[in-house]
């Protein structure tokens, strides 16, 4: 749930503000509201230092697995790494210019520009030119031409004369400062210098953990400086504003009494958009946190915590879109290997891996129900892997045929129909649950919340309409008319004048939202077809080769099928990002009336440094 917040203004003596901020930071409950653009010398210096630390850390990530002892402490390492990066950038720029010069001179070979200048002093004029092989220039009288090199794109030639040559209309090569051999030598020297710099850079890789710890220290210093220099001053009094969870106000009052602070405590204004969102939930709901972190969204303070809704529906969407048991087993195996080997003991990887395991299990279950295993034809699989005929082959399912008879449908036309029906059912369940939740939450504030019940009824009416139009024609029930009638009546009675202007578009949009869920079926079906057809392509290669080349044909089959499945998995994850996340953050969120424009509650505190903390713990033990 989202915890109510109180807006706090904390006052202290200006001479005591540093000690006040240190105590407030140790308290770690107040989200300070200081302008981000505080401009002081300390803030500028620390910002520059943080940028240098980040730059050094990013550069060393390439060598993060190197073992050994760092040649310097974190601060010295950051300074030297940044110097190396600056030197490398200079050398790379110089090398780029040298390579261009080398390519310009390469067709002419290794000649001395100084000799040409010497000949000119002796009355022999030499001009180096290039031209297209198709359009060669006409030579003036008394000028001879010596071709040096030719390729499909250009001809390199030298013009020689006893008098100055008119170069009008000619593409003249400017004489270089040094011969080609000198340029090649400088390129070689620049390459050696780059390799030496890279080797020195790599030697600092063992300091990466210390640099990360140092970055946390610099971030803390920068945050402290911004809060200190951002405090408002009125005479001898300094004050700072922020937000504290309602259940932590008593703790702040106790600290204020001990430290001699004055507090102004108030409820945030309705128009205050800077109130942070503090969400507290059971630990088992934390499994969805990696998803919110990945897409970078936070509910607004006056919105709702929807973790439970996403925990219920998002795994289902993932399973339907990936939709292959073989992939699910691969994902589960990969997650378990990472969990107990590469990422063992890494707290930051625990929740993402647990979430991936849960999603992989849903893919395994849905693929199994449909008899989908790496695109292998269902009838060739063992019976226990063929899934349910009701979903995969309804024409051979007695239950499906019985339902078709009651709905007056042709059993031969039932292919994929129940999956499509399930997509629309998920739409009705998720969208109407959003409206019912809004009714319960908002009814205590306004009777107009009853309009959400109208929208819920309208959504179920849209469900029956979508099923009638797309899945089972002629099955629109009579009672669904009451859903539309009562739903629209409730909406009209409770709607505000401002929202009424948009009502026609909202009514159409609610039907489009239900239709949007058919994408779950479409993405899953496309993945199944991709897997199946890449398998067929590999089989065609195997069949096309003679029997004495069976091993080569089998190898081709494996390569083609492997490429297809890797591509299919990548497209499946892309589909989840584009469609499954969209259904939750757009269609569902629209009915939950969420903008996802919240600011995450981040109390003013010291950064926890797991590296440093682990070392301290180890020393104590």
Q: What is the average per-residue confidence, as pLDDT, rounded to a whole number?
A: 89
Radius of gyration: 36 Å
User: Strand count, sense and closure of the main sheet?
Assistant: 5 strands, antiparallel
Beta-strand fraction estimate:
5-15%
Low-confidence stretches: 610-621
What is the count of helical runs?
21
Q: Helical proportion?
A: 55-70%
Counting helices, strands and paired strands, the structural category is alpha+beta
Distance N terminus to C terminus? 38 Å
Q: What is the strand tally?
A: 11
Shape: extended
How are the elements arranged and paired?
Blueprint: E1 5-13, H1 17-27, E2 31-32, H2 41-60, H3 74-105, H4 113-121, E3 125-131, E4 144-150, E5 155-161, E6 171-172, H5 180-203, H6 208-230, E7 232-234, E8 237-245, H7 249-259, E9 262-266, E10 276-277, H8 289-295, H9 307-322, H10 325-342, H11 347-370, H12 389-392, H13 398-406, H14 417-442, H15 451-471, H16 479-494, H17 497-500, H18 503-516, H19 518-544, H20 550-592, E11 599-600, H21 610-620
Q: In summary, what is this structure?
A:
With 621 residues, the chain is α+β, with helices and mostly antiparallel strands.
Characteristics of this structure?
5-stranded antiparallel beta sheet; alpha+beta; 4-stranded antiparallel beta sheet; 621 residues
Could you describe the 3D structure shown?
This protein starts with a strand and ends with a helix. Helix 2 packs across helix 3, helix 2 runs antiparallel to helix 6 and helix 14 runs antiparallel to helix 19. The chain has 621 residues and is an alpha+beta fold. The longest helix is centred in the last third of the chain and has 43 residues. Strands 1, 2, 7, 8 and 9 form a five-stranded antiparallel beta sheet that branches. Strands 4-5-3-6 form a four-stranded antiparallel beta sheet. It is extended. The C terminus is likely disordered. A hairpin with a 4-residue loop joins strand 4 and strand 5.
């Amino acid at each position: 749930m989202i915890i109510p917040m109180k807006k706090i203004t904390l006052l202290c003596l200006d001479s005591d503000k540093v000690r006040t901020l240190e105590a407030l930071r140790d308290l770690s409950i107040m989200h300070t509201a200081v302008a981000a653009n505080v401009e002081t010398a300390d803030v500028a210096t620390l910002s520059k230092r943080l940028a240098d630390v980040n730059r050094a850390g990013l550069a060393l990530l390439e060598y993060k697995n190197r073992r050994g002892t760092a040649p310097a402490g974190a601060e010295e390492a950051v300074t030297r790494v940044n110097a190396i990066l600056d030197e490398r950038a200079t050398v790379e720029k110089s090398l780029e210019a040298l390579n261009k010069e080398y390519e310009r001179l390469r067709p002419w070979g290794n000649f001395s520009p100084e000799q040409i200048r010497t000949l000119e002093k002796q009355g022999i004029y030499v001009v180096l030119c290039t031209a297209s092989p198709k359009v060669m220039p006409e030579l003036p009288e008394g000028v001879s031409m010596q071709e040096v090199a030719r390729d499909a794109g250009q001809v390199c030639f030298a013009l020689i004369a006893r008098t100055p040559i008119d170069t009008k209309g000619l593409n003249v090569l400017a004489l270089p400062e040094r011969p080609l051999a000198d340029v090649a030598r400088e390129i070689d020297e620049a390459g050696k210098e780059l390799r030496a710099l890279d080797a020195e850079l790599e030697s600092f890789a063992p300091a990466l953990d210390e640099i990360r710890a140092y970055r946390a220290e610099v971030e803390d210093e920068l945050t402290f400086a911004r809060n200190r220099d951002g405090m408002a001053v009125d005479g001898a009094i300094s004050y700072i504003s922020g937000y504290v969870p309602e259940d932590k106000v008593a703790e702040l009052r106790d600290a204020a009494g001990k430290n001699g602070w004055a507090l102004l405590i108030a409820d945030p204004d309705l128009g205050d958009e800077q109130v942070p969102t503090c969400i507290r939930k059971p630990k088992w709901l934390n499994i969805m946190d990696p998803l919110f972190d990945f897409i970078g969204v936070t509910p607004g303070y006056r919105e709702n915590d929807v973790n439970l809704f996403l925990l219920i529906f998002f795994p289902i969407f993932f399973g339907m879109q990936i939709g292959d048991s073989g992939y699910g087993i691969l994902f589960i195996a990969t997650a378990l290997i990472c969990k107990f080997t590469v990422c063992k003991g890494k707290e930051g990887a625990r929740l993402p891996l647990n979430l991936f395991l849960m999603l992989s299990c849903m893919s395994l279950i849905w693929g199994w129900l449909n008899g989908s295993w790496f695109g292998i034809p269902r009838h060739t699989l063992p019976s226990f892997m063929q899934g349910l005929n009701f979903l995969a082959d309804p024409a051979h399912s007695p239950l499906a045929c019985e339902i078709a008879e009651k709905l007056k449908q042709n059993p031969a036309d039932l292919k994929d129909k129940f999956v499509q029906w399930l997509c629309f059912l998920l739409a009705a369940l998720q969208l109407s649950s959003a409206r019912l939740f809004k009714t319960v939450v908002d009814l205590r504030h306004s009777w107009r919340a009853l309009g959400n019940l109208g929208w819920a009824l309208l959504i179920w009416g849209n469900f029956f309409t979508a099923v009638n139009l797309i899945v089972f024609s002629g099955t629109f029930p009579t009672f669904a008319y009451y859903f539309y009638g009562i739903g629209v009546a409730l909406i009209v009675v409770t709607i505000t004048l401002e929202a009424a202007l948009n009502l026609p578009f909202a009514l159409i949009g609610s039907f489009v939202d239900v239709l949007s869920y058919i994408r779950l079926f479409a993405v899953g079906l496309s993945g199944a077809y991709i897997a199946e057809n890449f398998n067929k392509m590999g089989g065609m290669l195997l069949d096309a080769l003679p029997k004495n080349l069976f091993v080569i044909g089998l190898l081709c089959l494996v390569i083609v099928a492997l490429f297809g499945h890797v591509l299919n998995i990548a497209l499946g994850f892309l589909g989840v990002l584009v469609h499954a996340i969209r259904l939750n953050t757009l269609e569902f969120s629209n009915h939950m009336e969420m903008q996802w424009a919240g600011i995450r509650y981040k109390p003013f505190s010291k950064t926890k440094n797991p590296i440093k903390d682990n070392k301290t713990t180890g020393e104590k033990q």
